[in-house]
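Sample A.
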Amino acid sequence: MSSVQLAFSSEGVRTLSSLGVGERGVVVDVCGRTRESAGRADRLLALGVTPGASVTMLQTFPGVVFLCDQTELVVERAVARTVLVRIDKASGAGRSIERANRSKAAVEETVRAQVSPEHMENHS
């Protein structure tokens, strides 16, 4: 099972999946506690998502798109939950963008629910 970790306090550490667009941080840990997540952790490590690597969130929906050092990567949300990141305090501006993205996602979900396949058949 894979788990690589930098020796830091846990203050300000969040999962990669919880970052908002524009937020930056440094990878602290790539967790692989189960057999399945250990494989994911190994693949992430091979792609350069290693402790000490800088990350910047580029997109949170539908997939998690982030920049890791100079490489743009796309992962599923479950995979992004296995990466622990220490937030760069200077990127706090990303929080307002994160709130806007959550609002946008809520609106998109509402529209999807209202425009169900049955609704489309009745208006075709």
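Sample B.
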Amino acid sequence: MLYSVYPTQTPAERAEVVDAAAAHAAHMRTDAVGTNSGGTNAVGTNAADADATGTNAVGTDAVGTNAAGADATGTNAVGTDAVGTNASGMSATGTNPTGTNAAGADASLLFTSLHIPEAEGLAAYGDWMAEVHARTGLEFCADVSPVTLGKLGCAIDELGRLRDWGVRMLRIDFGFGTDDVRRIAASGDYAIAVNASCASADFIDAFQGIELVGWHNYYPRPETGLTVEYFRAQSALFADRGLPVYSFIPGERSFRAPLHQGLPMLEHQRYRNAYLNLVEVATLWPASQIVCAEGTLYPRHQRWIERFERDHVLTIPLVSVDASLDFLIGGDWKLRVEQTDAAWRVEGTRQARTPSLVINADVRARGSVQMDLAGYGRYAGEINLMKQDRPLNHLQARVGDIAAPYLDLVDLMSPDTPVRFVRWQDCDTEGDDCDD
């Protein structure tokens, strides 16, 4: 995951983002341990006893308005030569993004905008960028337009000076033609990204020979963000050509001016927590490099995202955990490969256990954790994560629940991704002293 910083932020806000980005880049460079905590995950247990297969509706219900042609940054990017950048600095040509995990991309990049109408003192901001680059090694993808040229008092061929600010990639927001974009790329040997949210196939093909990626928009005004279906279709235009895709998720702690309503790419993610948003985008388009559009994240979400990107482990916070479920906490577990309509089955959990209390609700609710009881014979003790509401069953007992803000993780799970269960109440909101 990448971060974003803007000239309209206060110095303190910018410093917080830089510190978070530098720490995240350092963590992502650390070799993933990838070990199984306590050896608790029994892989491949009783695969022959699976229930009937079913389908998992992974992230297919997109709530929101199709905003093709919406204004992503306060300016209309439709039909213009919007550009993005390759966060790894590598040539996109011949790259297979569908085989690239986002965690493998360079996390040492910050997104910024150099054409926000309200931004003043762009030269001073550039000095700040240069200092950050020299001090931390972080580099920038800069969103530019003809507005940028006016604010800097320079010509297209002089944009190479942004290299001195630590800019290695340019995202052309609007107002430049194809020839202009080629001149801009050549001025500083920049990677160029086109606006993935409204680019056409012909538009993409016009930039052959340029180091190119697709970088989606974010949408400041509510009800203008993309639908899931549109996001997938536009991303496929780039994947079909072997080009990387970059996607935004909104922030969760501070929100950028002028509307302060979040900067989502997908409309239904506006106001929702960043961890769930990132996992959803990574599930919808696994090869996408994901960018937090504003501010920083809560520490617990930062840790869980790093674990997901680096170790490929999905953290599941639980509440109302019965004592009989203590064995499940803290280790990494696999889900059975056979998908059912009713629930995810956790491998290696069969063992005779008795819940301390059996307190059921009206149904076996979606997101609840159900344990098979002794009446199920050799299935006793098996843990099931409910995908949908089902009638009560006297042979199962509710022993926990996925914490409400993360309930939709049940739709984003996969047998390919181990899960780690943690107690929600063990982590303070800031999470600084929580080792989960």
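B remarks: The chain has eight helices and 15 strands. The first strand starts at residue 3 and ends at 4.
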